Amino acid sequence: MRRLTKEENSWILYDWASSAYSIIITTAVFPIFYKAAATNAGVSAADSTAYLGYTVAIATFILAMLGPILGTIADYEGIKKRFFMFFFSLGVLSTAFLAFIPSDQWLLLLICYTFAAVGSTGANVFYDAFLVDVTPEEKMNDISARGFSFGYIGSTIPFIISIAVIILSQNNIIPISTTIASKIAFLITAVWWAIFTIPLLKNVKQRYYIKREPNPVINSFRRLGTTLKEIQKYRALFLFLLAYFFYIDGVGTIISMSTAYGTDLGISSTSLLVILFITQVVAAPFAILYGRLSERFTGKKMLYVGIIVYMIVCIYAYFIKTTLDFWILAMLVATSQGGIQALSRSYFAKLIPKEKANEFFGFYNIFGKFASIMGPLLVGVTSQLTGSSNAGVLSLVLLFIIGLIILIRVPEQKTSNKNSSGSISV
């Protein structure tokens, strides 16, 4: 097996760093902390879940608007890493600030969470675009899958520490409240995220770029218009983005809303944390497995598998009632969560011109993030109308069905860019 380069290892390590945010803030500790704060303030379970969904929708809308514009500007030489650093810093600082917000201020918690989510998601736009800079096309499936796998493994370490602090506080073994323990978890996340991002900042360079020119902002908007036309010109790319728009919406919504959903089912916070930890452990090897199987069966066929698994998840979620049911649901998600995300990223990276990676990943972001507005809103509205979180999750099956139908229609084609030069002038 080929030995990984320093650039590939540094790129992969960012997933190790940022996944702590994904599990502790997006999925586990923060949602439980927020739900408790909202409940203490007299907000009903269905309403607090809906408000969290609306908050996720707002954050993703902001990035959906900014992604293509910033991505186009970031294609200029030396700009990509600057934009990455801005959003990375916003995410880390906002995550740390969550620890200093009074626990009874549930609305302020959601506002700060919005900034943290914008920072995290914005950094990921440019991190994803760095994939074309660190590895050749034939290794993209493997490297992308390794990133998600290392992310799952790495996130378990700060997660275990956070769980330990929370459980010890709950059992009065350490003299702090559960509230303080949760806030310590927020600080652990920020520190972990910051430290393990250093290798990427040090070792990863923007190899593919457009030479700087006068009036870069004006010219960026011109290139943005050209890119819109190019996306429509490449049928495979355009259809893939449409399919991605629908199925990744369901994936992202299940990730961001899973803990709130489990809380509504009456599952204890301790059980939820343990389930989420095991989910991370199980997901790591499955992400690698998806990457390996894609080399044998193609990435597109493995995407079919992931979408079908998620359809089963949505249907099963409607009927679950017990903690055991939630365990089964979580393990089903673990088999495909990392694989479907990793292969989507690498499949798209193979279709786009490398020197315009940020620009095209900006559209990848806008399709993904606009879709992420629809999913949480769908869950929120359905939950409020029916008074059932189960029905809200079931409604997501429609998104996977549409995504699968469109993905089947994506024509097979060779990668669109074999150019190995480091820059291009336009």
From TrEMBL:
SUPFAM superfamilies, per the entry: MFS general substrate transporter (SSF103473)
Name of one Pfam family that matches: ATG22
PROSITE patterns documented for this protein: MFS
Keyword Membrane listed: yes
Topological type in the membrane: Multi-pass membrane protein
Keyword Transmembrane helix: yes
Membrane-crossing residue ranges in chain numbering: 12-34, 54-76, 83-101, 107-127, 148-168, 180-201, 237-261, 267-290, 302-320, 326-348, 360-379, 391-410
Subcellular localization, as worded in the UniProt entry: Cell membrane
Keywords: Membrane, Transmembrane, Transmembrane helix, Transport
Protein name: UMF1 family MFS transporter
PANTHER family tied to this protein: AUTOPHAGY-RELATED PROTEIN 22
Annotated Major facilitator superfamily (MFS) profile domain residues: 1-414
InterPro entries: Atg22-like, ATG22/LtaA_families, MFS_dom, MFS_trans_sf
